[in-house]
Amino acid sequence: xxxxxxxxxxxxxxxxxxxxxxxxxxxxxxxxxxxxxxxxxxxxxxxxxxxxxxxxxxxxxxxxxxxxxxxxxxxxxxxxxxxxxxxxxxxxxxxxxxxxxxxxxxxxxxxxxxxxxxxxxxxxxxxxxxxxxxxxxxxxxxxxxxxxxxxxxxxxxxxxxxxxxxxxxxxxxxxxxxxxxxxxxxxxxxxxxxxxxxxxxxxxxxxxxxxxxxxxxxxxxxxxxxxxxxxxxxxxxxxxxxxxxxxxxxxxxxxxxxxxxxxxxxxxxxxxxxxxxxxxxxxxxxxxxxxxxxxxxxxxxxxxxxxxxxxxxxxxxx
Length: 318
Hints:
It is a multi-pass membrane protein. Its main location: membrane. Keywords: Membrane, Transmembrane, Transmembrane helix. GO terms for molecular function: calcium channel activity; calcium, potassium:sodium antiporter activity. It is found in: Membrane. With 318 residues, this protein is mainly α. It has one domain: NCX, central ion-binding region (A middle domain of Talin 1, Up-down Bundle). The protein is 83% helix and 3% strand. A two-stranded antiparallel sheet has the order 1-4. A two-stranded antiparallel ribbon has the order 2-3. The longest helix is centred in the middle third of the chain and has 35 residues.
């Protein structure tokens, strides 16, 4: 029963952590005179991507960097197609212009760059360095935007309020990261007990479990009326996963995987981002969320079909 206990506590921690983090993030943004979306795209995105980073570093050291690539691509699909799809299905989102210009552009470039680097079937250490360099360039652009906003907003907040917000956000992030680990452990053990294929578990259960912090924080942000925090967290997490995590993994141990193996995940990732791209007025509509959920359902069906082929179940029915 430990597996079910892990799963239950993971869900509870995710809900509580998401609530604490969103309240803290909005307070920090107000205290430091910057947009809440920037906190989501940086602090939250990094913290909620730590499960993927842990998987990536351990996989690279163990000589299995392909696992890190699979988890990063799978998590990015979950972030956009499933998590953002659910948030949008509840109601549309108004995306800030700086988010569209900066974060969406880089998020769309991530799968394109990955596909180009995989044309030779290898993400080398040099390729990894290039990916990390692009990530740092994006991060510096976010930092510059934050400094620009601080200069515009001259109001100085109370120190006590500032530190209270930081403590809330830190406590929330700790619970969110812990929830991801608990959910992955519990759900993976349950899936194995039911005889699910390991590839399918990685592409669905592990990817969804490591993305649980993003799901919790995004839903709580929607509930509290701070959509920019949830959107920033999702886009930032995709950039962290696709550039920093994959790049660091390749620098530790080059990733040898063909474009044919990753092509479907890259194509789904690009399609999902295009489906969510804001309209001319900066609005991401509810209907776009419905299409995203349908896309994710199609991806899951594809994963199941591939798993059945791998295990030879289809051949047994012939």
